[in-house]
Design brief:
The chain is about 45% helix and about 10% strand. By secondary structure, it is α/β, with parallel strands linked by helices. Keywords: Glycosyltransferase, Manganese, Membrane, Signal, Transferase, Transmembrane, Transmembrane helix.
Length: about 500
C-alpha cells in the first residue's frame, strides 16, 4: 500500500480545518478576547456601543458576548453582524435568598473563569465604554480588578486567566462564601479575600513571577457615580481608558440620562457612529422604535384636532352668582393632577432608547397635549356647571342683557384669545425653560442642575395655580352667559 503523498496530506489537512470551522463557528480565533455578558434585549444597545468603542482602538482580538435564553434571535443576529462572537450559555442560579430581584442570574458572570479556549480574557460590563486602547490589560496577572467603595472590588472590568480548576473551586464554594451584594461581585470579594492588598498593575513594570492578583487603577474603571459627586474625574481625564456608568437606573442608553449626566455624552458620541449592520440599525436605532416615534409625533396633532375647549374667556361683569368657596382649591387640584398624569403618561409611552433630543421633544409634545386635553375636560365640566348654575339663579337677569352680549361677541372673542393664549402659552414656556435652563447656562453638576429645575418648578407651580384659577373662573361665567346661545357659535380654539 502506497503512503499518501504530501499533496494529499495537505488537501486532507485543509478539509479538516474547513470542517472544524463549519462545526465551530463561535470558536476562538485568537488566544485572547474581550468578553461581555448579556441576559436580555434591554442591554443590546450597550453591547453594540461597547463593541464599537473597542474596535475603534484597532484591536485584532476576539469580541465575545455570552448570551442567555432571554436574548432574542434578532438581537443575536445584530450582534453577529456587528462583529461579536455570540456564545450561548445557561444561567447560574443565585444561591443567596436575600438579594435584589434583578440579581437572579448574575452569578453567571463566573463562567468567564471557565473560558479555557482563551489564554486570557478582559471582561467588561455592558454599561461600560472604552475611550482609549486597553490592549495592555492582557499583560496583567491571572486575576485583575479595580477597587471601589473603600476596599471593595468592582466586577465591572476584570482581567481573567481562565482555569477549569479555579472555576470548579468557585462552584464548590458558591453556597458557602458570603456575598455582601447578594451577587457575583460580593462572592468574588469573598473568594479573593486578600485582593485589597494586591500590587497595582503598571503596564511598563511587569512583575516576575506573575502575581496571582493585581489591582487596576481607576483609569480602567472610571466610575460615573464618583464623577457626579465632584463634577470631575478623580484622575487625568486625558488618560481615561474605560468609563463605567454605575448610576443604577441612569443607564447611558436611556434618552433622559444625557440631560442629567455629562459623561453620557461620550457614550452617545460612540453610539452615533454605529454602522447599519442590519437595516434600520445605524446610529444605534431600532426599526421598531423608529416606527413608534413617527406615530408619537403625528398622533398628538390628530388628538388636538378633536380635543378643544369650547370657550371664550372673560371675567365677571357683576351679573353672576357667587362661586362656591371650594372652587379654587378644586381647580388647582385638577390642574396639578392633570399635569402629573400627563407627565407620567408621556414618560411611559416614549421608547427609552431613542436619541436624547428626540426623547425630549416627544416628552414636551405629549405632556403638553395630554395636559391640554385633561385639564380642558375639567374646564368643559366647569362650563356646564356654570350653565346649570345660571338656570338655578334665574333667567330674568340675563334676558335684558342678551342682545348686548351677542352684539359684543366679536369683541369678546378677541379678548378671550389674548387671555387664553397668555395662560396656556405661559405655562408651556415656563415648563420648557425649567427643563432646559441648566443646559442653556452650561451647568454640568448634577445637583446644581436639579437645584435649578426645582427652582423653575416652584415658579411653574405658582403660575399654574394663578392661571388655572383664572381660566376656570372664566369658564364658569362663560357657561352662565351662554346658557341660551348655540354651542356652534362659542368655539374658541386655543392652538
Amino acid at each position: 500500500m502506497r503512503s499518501p503523498t504530501p499533496a494529499r496530506l495537505a488537501l486532507a489537512l485543509v478539509a479538516a480545518l474547513a470542517a472544524a470551522a463549519l462545526l465551530g463557528g463561535a470558536a476562538a480565533a485568537t488566544e485572547e478576547a474581550y468578553v461581555t455578558l448579556l441576559y436580555g434585549d434591554e442591554f443590546v444597545l450597550g453591547v453594540r456601543v461597547l463593541g464599537k468603542s473597542i474596535r475603534d482602538t484597532g484591536t485584532r482580538r476576539d469580541l465575545v458576548v455570552l448570551v442567555s435564553d432571554g436574548v432574542s434571535d434578532y438581537s443575536r443576529k445584530l450582534l453577529q453582524a456587528d462583529g461579536w462572537i455570540v456564545s450561548h450559555i445557561t444561567l447560574l442560579a443565585n444561591p443567596n435568598q436575600v438579594r435584589p430581584k434583578r440579581f437572579w442570574g448574575v452569578y453567571t458572570k463566573l463562567k468567564i473563569f471557565n473560558m479555557t479556549s482563551y489564554r486570557k480574557v478582559v471582561f467588561l460590563d455592558a454599561d461600560t465604554v472604552v475611550v482609549k486602547s486597553i490592549e495592555d490589560l492582557f499583560k496583567c496577572g491571572k486575576f485583575c480588578g479595580n477597587l471601589k467603595h473603600s476596599e471593595r472590588m468592582n466586577s465591572g472590568v476584570m482581567v481573567v486567566e481562565p482555569s477549569e480548576t479555579v472555576f470548579k473551586d468557585m462552584m464548590r464554594q458558591i453556597d458557602t462564601l458570603p456575598s455582601y451584594t447578594g451577587g457575583d461581585q460580593g462572592f468574588l470579594n469573598s473568594y479573593y479575600a486578600d485582593f485589597a492588598n494586591s500590587h497595582v498593575y503598571e503596564p511598563d513594570k511587569p512583575y516576575t513571577p506573575e502575581p496571582e492578583t493585581q489591582r487596576l487603577s481607576t483609569l480602567y474603571n472610571a466610575d460615573v457615580g464618583l464623577y457626579m459627586l465632584a463634577n470631575k474625574w478623580m484622575v487625568d481625564e486625558k488618560e481615561l481608558r474605560v468609563i463605567h456608568y454605575t448610576l443604577g437606573p441612569l443607564k447611558p442608553w436611556d434618552w433622559w440620562t444625557a440631560w442629567l449626566v455629562k459623561p453620557v455624552g461620550v457614550w452617545q458620541d460612540v453610539r452615533q457612529t454605529l454602522e447599519e449592520s442590519l437595516p434600520g440599525t445605524g446610529g444605534g436605532r431600532s426599526p421598531h422604535d423608529q416606527l413608534v416615534v413617527k406615530v408619537l409625533f403625528i398622533l398628538p396633532v390628530l388628538l388636538l384636532s378633536f380635543g378643544y375647549y369650547q370657550s371664550c374667556f372673560q371675567f365677571s361683569n357683576g351679573m353672576h352668582s357667587k362661586l362656591p368657596s371650594y372652587f379654587g382649591a378644586l381647580t388647582v387640584l385638577a390642574c396639578f393632577m392633570s399635569a402629573g398624569v400627563s407627565f407620567a403618561f408621556a414618560f411611559a409611552i416614549i421608547p427609552k432608547q431613542i436619541m436624547p433630543w428626540t426623547g425630549l421633544l416627544l416628552m414636551f409634545e405629549w405632556t403638553f397635549v395630554s395636559f391640554f386635553l385633561l385639564f380642558g375636560s375639567y374646564l368643559r365640566f366647569v362650563y356646564r356647571w356654570g350653565s346649570l348654575d345660571a338656570n338655578h339663579v334665574g333667567h330674568s337677569r340675563f334676558d335684558s342683557s342678551e342682545n348686548h352680549m351677542v352684539t359684543g361677541r366679536h369683541h369678546n372673542m378677541s379678548d378671550c384669545d389674548i387671555d387664553a393664549t397668555f395662560y396656556w402659552t405661559g405655562m408651556a414656556i415656563i415648563a420648557i425653560v425649567t427643563v432646559l435652563l441648566p443646559t442653556l447656562l452650561g451647568v454640568t453638576a448634577l445637583f446644581a442642575k436639579l437645584g435649578l429645575m426645582v427652582a423653575g418648578g416652584v415658579v411653574l407651580a405658582s403660575f399654574m395655580t394663578y392661571a388655572s384659577e383664572h381660566i376656570a373662573i372664566s369658564a364658569f361665567y362663560k357657561g352662565q352667559r351662554d346658557r341660551n346661545v348655540s354651542r356652534s357659535r362659542s368655539i374658541c380654539f386655543l392652538f
